[in-house]
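The records we work with from here on pair a chain with its fold. Here is one such record, which you should read through line by line:
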Amino acid sequence: MKIALVLALAGLVSYFGIVLFVIPQEYSDVPTLEPQPIFDAKISSNRINLGDSFAVVVDSSNSNDASDIQIVSIAFPNMTQIGDNVEIVSYDFTQSPRYVKTGDKIGYDYSGGTKSVLAQYPSIEAYSRPVTPGARYSVELKVTPDMVGNFTIFVKTIAIPHATEYSHYPHSGIKDHQNEYVESFSVMVSQ
């Protein structure tokens, strides 16, 4: 009877030891995914006349690991609303592009939505989910500025999970209203 009790107790100790120490260690050894998004943006003209339009084409890709989501954001800091000034000509992302209006609640500082801020200007977000390594997606916009002067566009891409500084592109430079790095493009609009 004592031997059976000792064996049962030893079995329970072994069971709980494995459950509490061995199995959690196996789960914590799972490597973190580190997607690396990048884009190439092209503006059809850097000088136009008021009333004319120009094209913005953003080709994005992902390398290294898969990502749950990859977002390409094209923002318009000179505008308060998009209206008829920006048209989505084409896209091949797996999800429909999302319009972000001035005042909308948006993610901040690469937090994946845990921190937020109100949008100071409009943008368009094209995104795919999931995104395998080597996947490529593109979006084309037709932009018609409604005032003369320097018209600015901000472009960035972010992969989720956001694990390292390489989970977004660009990695340095100008920061936008979300405290995230952007590449800036300008078009001079003349009378």
Remarks:
- DSSP finds one helix and 14 strands in the chain.
- The chain has a mean pLDDT of 92.
- Residues 39 and 60 are 4 Å apart (CA to CA).
